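Renewal narrative, Specific Aim 1. Our central claim is that a sequence can be written position by position from structural information alone. The example that follows is taken directly from our test logs and has not been curated for this report. It begins with the structure tokens describing the chain, in the order in which they were read.
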């Protein structure tokens, strides 16, 4: 028993010593990036999939759990692969040119995005749309900071909120198939299911009646 503990401590000391080596920092950062991508993807997707599945999807309890597990795995895997690819390409470019420049980040992320998120599926679609909204906000702020567009005299957010909600409800009412399925489900629940009821049970307690009354 003591011999096994000594071996474990020696192995742990060797691992810690390796982690302190600066010459291995780039390679180790790629590995930890893979780990962090997997963990973060699972943390983000699991609660979202849990809520959306039990709110809007039909099927048995086992089928719902399987759907949650599959969505969580896909998100976790893709994010892990992307971080691994991005950081690996970033390190390779920096090593080849002897320094890090802004274009390295753009090129590495473009390649990673093409390889990992290029498949048009519900998980990737949600991630890309999430990023797109943040990019538009970020580019708008950057344009103001750089002086490409003037600083607004008033907060433009109320106008943005009005345009976003006006556009999305117009699309839902008249061009629904252009919206993502999960958004369609959410809006159907909010704006269409609220138009239908038969008695108090499906007016206040339930969204829809499950019996044949």
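The sequence written for that structure reads:
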């Amino acid at each position: 028993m003591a011999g096994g503990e000594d071996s474990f401590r020696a192995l742990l000391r060797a691992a810690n010593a390796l982690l302190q080596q600066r010459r291995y920092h780039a390679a180790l950062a790629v590995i930890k990036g893979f780990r962090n991508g997997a963990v973060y993807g699972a943390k983000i997707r699991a609660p979202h999939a849990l809520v959306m599945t039990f709110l809007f999807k039909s099927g048995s309890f086992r089928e719902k759990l399987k759907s949650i597990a599959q969505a969580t795995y896909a998100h976790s895997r893709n994010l892990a692969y992307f971080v691994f690819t991005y950081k690996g390409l970033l390190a390779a470019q920096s090593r080849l040119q002897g320094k890090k420049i802004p274009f390295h980040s753009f090129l590495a992320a473009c390649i990673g995005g093409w390889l990992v998120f290029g498949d048009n599926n519900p998980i990737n679609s949600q991630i890309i749309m999430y990023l797109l909204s943040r990019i538009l906000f970020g580019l708008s702020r950057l344009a103001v900071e750089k002086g490409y567009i003037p600083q607004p005299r008033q907060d433009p957010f109320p106008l943005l909120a009005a345009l976003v909600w006006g556009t999305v409800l117009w699309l839902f009412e008249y061009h629904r198939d252009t919206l993502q399925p999960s958004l369609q489900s959410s809006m159907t629940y909010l704006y269409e299911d609220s138009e239908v009821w038969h008695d108090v049970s499906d007016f206040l307690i339930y969204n829809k009646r499950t019996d044949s009354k």
